[in-house]
Protein 1
Amino acid sequence: MSLALAPTDRPRLPRGVRLAQDRVRGGMVLLAPEKAIALDAIGEAILTRVTGDATFAEIVSDLADTYSAPRDQIESDVQAFLQSLRARVFLTVVK
Amino acid sequence: MTTPPPIAMLAELTHRCPLSCPYCSNPVALHGKETELATETWADAFVQAADLGVLQLHLSGGEPASRPDLVDLTRAAHEAGLYTNLITSGIGLTPKRLDALEAAGLDHIQLSLQGTTPELADRIGGYKGGFERKMMVAEEIRKRGLPLTLNAVMHRHNLDDLDRTIDMAVELGARRLEVACVQFHGWATLNRAALLPTREQTEATKRKVAEAEARLRGTLAFDFVPPDYYADYPKACMGGWGTAGLNISPDGKVLPCHAAETIPHLTFDNIRDTPLRDIWYDSPAFNAYRGTDFLPDTCQSCDRVEVDFGGCRCQALAIAGDAAATDPVCRRSPDHGRVDRLLSEAMAEADSATFTYRVIPRP
Ligand code: SF4
Ligand code: SF4
């Protein structure tokens, strides 16, 4: 299956995958089956927008507006990050 | 080196188990029920672990469902803020108990698979009817939408069934499949000849996993643990000694890895007597092999030393006779010839070898 997200896809974190505050090391982590991923500021900005309601295009626009950054650049970063999570089934997509 | 906080903790709630797999990673000297920690002691250990920085908790055994207080322990772990994973054979998980575990906040289940048919699975697990019950449990897990990993422990007798194993993982709705080739610790060391796969099986397995991983990307994630003895380099055992994870044994000993008790000159503190934080940061056992300074020149001068930290301490002791030696699995180890010898001895005896099953402790 292709892992690429279409503009209208709504990414979501499936059951068993969630964001949490790391109260010992600071920052946020993504907790998944037998895996904990420390998030940098970018990862956190992306995943806090992954609600299951927002489309991929909306997430990209929101980030481009918030950080006044070029949309193309943001889009390819978000696409790459979400695909890497989708490959591990840490992220699913509602069409 | 400054010691980082641990990320994961394995809580071996009990050594009791209805199965008797000949590769069980529990120590050959099993602890009986009477030595097990009380519910409150575990609950307190979970809080201490979370305070220390542990994010992931694995409830394991033996068979954790053999503890009548499994639901209470799960709730305690969840309330401590830990991501809670249950590592189980499935035996002892009734639909009612699964409901209660779900309500208690269980995040994920890792279900072991001994084989793909009742005949094979029940022969390996030494438990008649086990496969059928496991399949019923898997279906109950699927119905509830509980995140599932299938952990297929692979060896000479079931590696040829890998394709079917992969299909089963998809059918059961697992998101992740661990293709875990037997590691030779605990009971497995008594069964080398019966369990070691052939080199051909090992090569075929690598190919099949790579092919299936590409084909099922996004549907089923793979974790592949290749058989050690055929590898060129060792694994970074536990992500480095005292670096990423810790274990608590059923009687409360806090260990850097589940096999650490095989290193006789180390003494391990008990969670009943000593705070977890002190054990992690200050105990001689946890500091014994931290970092890479203790390693011989073979490793010190090697470009992989920060990749595998010289491999597994327990394996170094078991095969090279020195827990501080280069893991003999490594091609660069001066003791590597011993691994080759173990392999050829095992292959010579393979056809006549029978299983030495794990014996359940009876108090
Ligand atoms: S490996 Fe087998 S015998 Fe050992 S705990 Fe797991 S199911 Fe029980
Ligand atoms: S020599 Fe030591 S550091 Fe280098 S690969 Fe072998 S075990 Fe690892």
Protein 2
Amino acid sequence: MEDVKIKIRRSEPALSSEWRYEEYSVPVVEGMVVLDAVHYIQNNIDPTLAVRWNCKAARCGSCSAEIDGKPKLMCKTRLDSLGSKITINPIKAYPVVKDLVTDVSQNYEIAKKIPPFTPKQGLQEPWKFMQIDVTRSKEFRTCIECFLCQDVCHVIREHQSNYYGPKHVVKIAALDLHPIDSIDRSELMHHDGGLGYCDITKCCQNVCPEEIRITDNAIIPEKERIVDHAYDPIGVLIKKIKKRKW
Amino acid sequence: MEKNSNSSLTWFPPEFKELNWRLWSFALILILSAGALILYPVSEYQGYVDPFYSPTVLVIPLIALFRLSCYAYRKDYYRHVFRHPLACIDGIRFDDKRKGYSGEMTFFSLNNFHRYFLYIAIVILPFFYYDIYVSMMYVPGEFIFRLGTIVLIVNTILLTLWTFSCHAFRHLTGGHTDCYSCKTAGGAKKKFYNGQSYLNRYHEQLAFISLIVVLAVDLYIRALIVGWPVDFTFLKFVI
Ligand code: SF4
Ligand code: SF4
Ligand code: FES
């Protein structure tokens, strides 16, 4: 099989503000993924090339990068799905540590602000709930925290705001839609979380390697929950009347 | 990372302040088409009521607001009119750090009233079904089935599917529920929700197809009025 030419953005901001694209020629073996090619470069051409990975099975979410401009997992992208010239960039929404490794720790700070699972009062352990009530929140639990959705989101990438980002809305929706959780986090998303910045353009949904339908199933439902308490006076009134004891 | 506070936002969004020919041509198209609909109205023609004028031309602004606040169209005009972003891939996104952006925090937070326009749309929908009936029965004592009726049926079905695949409808009819099994008839409720969710997957496609078909039906009826031979009678009998 032919070689592929792989261009990788190399930089180490702690040492120098300069960066460059370096091109490598990699022999292709049947079934090879982009991460294999990067490992080939590390092992045979340039051991100083930095890349983060763990499972090589699309389960850990470590090897996120932009392959020909598209945010993807390197371990889940086969070389034969790409052309003979490939460009790999680190994910651009986050500061580079070195080469393809970025610092995604902002996300850990955001995660701390989200109230954890809080079961309704008076429930007996072990908690019991029905399958039909958890199917929706199960979809969100497949998130591998690769931050590809955060990377592709223009609110995070191109604009300064307080928006938490799609990955965190997925987490919040998983909790809010849970049958025995007692907190409504849409209030938080309306204010501190800045969900209003999301303009439902669905790039996050397009890149999620777990095929979570982020915008349709997490973001829009959260937006609708915000509408429930902040933009629907008639709905609020009906709820009040229903609650009132006559 | 430095973050803006929401208090720095004004009601008039930065998106409207930039020189954006896409925005102004989009606004112009909307104004011109509204003007054309008012200046060149179509009254009923041989039993066919033009969808833009059913039940009255006065509902056009409401339907327009239903379309404009629909999640599917919102996505499209944020992308193609404002380019926030135009595409997801690096290099052709045409979004920019220097461009002002407020998303749905300021002016466009009005889109949150979408569910009210949904209610209006649901009220208007039966009129289209009535129009189908009229198109077959407009001559007293006679039943007639023509190509135009099929056109109206297709249009009405698409409008119905688009309306009921709405995201707000999805939320209101089941999405807001966290525990189905705690409710009476929870199983049925969840089944309905699942069915509606299936339809909701195709909401964007339905939004566009139905828009194109409505425009086509309008043109079809106008073509009939100017005498184009584009209608065809399948069935006709006295009742
Ligand atoms: S849909 Fe919202 S969260 Fe997802 S990429 Fe677009 S703006 Fe970001
Ligand atoms: S939601 Fe999808 S794209 Fe986002 S972090 Fe989770 S797995 Fe990755
Ligand atoms: S190495 Fe684990 S997801 Fe790619």
